[in-house]
Amino acid sequence: MGSGVEAIMSPYPNLACSCVNQLFLAYTGYSIGSDRVAQYQFWEPGDLLPVIAHLDRHTGMINGGMFTDVLFLAFAVLNEHGEPRYLTRNEQAPATSADWANYTNELFLCTRNLDALWIAHEKTCFAKRTHVWVALPYPNPSVFGDDASRIRAVIRWMDDFLARWDDSSLDSQLRLMGFYWLQESVYFEGPANSDRTVIRAVNRAIRKRCAAGSPLHSLWIPYQQANGWNQWRKLGFSLSFLQPNHYFQPAKLIETAAAQSYENCLGIEIEFDLGITYDAAKRARLQEYLRLGATGGTDPAGNAFGPYMRTSPLAWYSGGWFFGKNGRKQAFVSLYQTDDPLYDQIYWYLHGIYMPDKPR
Question: Distance between CA 227 and CA 224 in Å, rounded?
Answer without folding.
Answer: 9
